[in-house]
Amino acid sequence: MQPCKQGFAAWGRALGLAALIGWASAAHTQEKVAYNMAWLPQGSSVGVIVAQELGYFKEAGLDVSIQRGYGGNRTANELDQGQYEFGYVDPISLVLNRSNGGKIRMVGALNTRWPAGICFDTRRHKPKSPADMKGLTLGGGSASPVHNVVPAWLELNGQPRDSIRLLRMDPAVVDASLIEGRIDLAECWRASNRAVTQKQADAAGVPLGWIEYGDFGLDAYGSGFAASEDTIRKRPDMVRKFLKASYRGYEYAFANPERAADLMVKMFPVTDRGVALAQIRDMADLLVDPQARDKGLGYLRDDRMRSTVQFVDKAFGLNGKVKPQDTYTNDLLK
């Protein structure tokens, strides 16, 4: 009987070794991918976070690392330099990168319309249009595109480019400065700092108002997934897998926002769950384009990309240096 037991034991060890080798081989074949969130963890990147936590990337054969970023311009430049495969990039940063010789493109929409606006304390001001903000002070981050966007937006609405006084500030103090009454207006971004501002306003008993640029002529995309042309050319299958898994993550998050907020907190424990939940609900609205619903999530419309690039061109005086068709592709969504 002893030899039989030894035989079974040896067979068991062989099976275990084979399973271990198989697991190691599978793990080895996972393709490494790095994603830059452009800022701290927030609802704008919830689809990527959910895809990671629920194993969608792993199913697709991808080993994805999700990293914080330090603003749109830096993210676009780091993407162009090959430090990341994907980034959450706004069209302004993308166009400016290309105007300086960079080669990155939008490969999937996330904010299908410009997600920014101007917040204010309704006890002090109640603007209904750009004209009503004449002479007021608007605070924005020192490197924020608001300092170029607002003058061009004012001009678009028949107002003098300098009718709103722009103040460059440390991004960390913009929200608090509005709540404390030190500035009249503040830049607010849906699925981002607007939820933070709203939380601070609620705690201070400040009624918060909001005007969206998109309600007054700004027909433009906000941030989306971007990749370098080198990555697109050399690793198209990887790009398709990443996009498919990520949009699957967004769909899950929108159907299960409470669970998605929990997954964000699990991955990034410093995340404020309430703020994250509000940001996720913002994204559920921003990601779906009613005019391209039949195309599926992520589709970038020719007309809106053209309008986006034209606005950026005017805001930054680029004189047609970047062509709309060079800034995006829908080919990897197929």
Q: Outline of this structure?
A:
It contains 13 helices and ten strands. The chain has about 325 residues and is α/β, with parallel strands linked by helices.
Descriptive report:
The protein is an alpha/beta fold and 334 residues long. The protein is 46% helix and 16% strand. The chain has a five-stranded mixed β-sheet, with helices on both faces. Strands 7-6-8-5-9 form a five-stranded mixed β-sheet. The chain starts with a helix and ends in an 18-residue tail after the last helix.
List its salient traits.
16% strand; D-Maltodextrin-Binding Protein, domain 2; disordered N terminus; alpha/beta; 2 domains; 334 residues; 46% helix; NMT1/THI5
What is the domain total for the residues? 2
Q: Output the CATH homologous superfamily of the largest domain.
A: Periplasmic binding protein-like II
Strand element count: 10
User: Outline, from the CA principal axes?
Assistant: globular
**Could you please say which CATH topology of the largest domain applies here?**
D-Maltodextrin-Binding Protein, domain 2
Structural class: alpha/beta
> How is the biggest beta sheet arranged?
5 strands, mixed
Order of helices and strands: HEHHEHEHEEEHEHEHEEHHHHH
Q: How far is the first residue's CA from the last residue's CA?
A: 61 Å
Radius of gyration: 23 Å
Name given to the CATH architecture of the largest domain: 3-Layer(aba) Sandwich
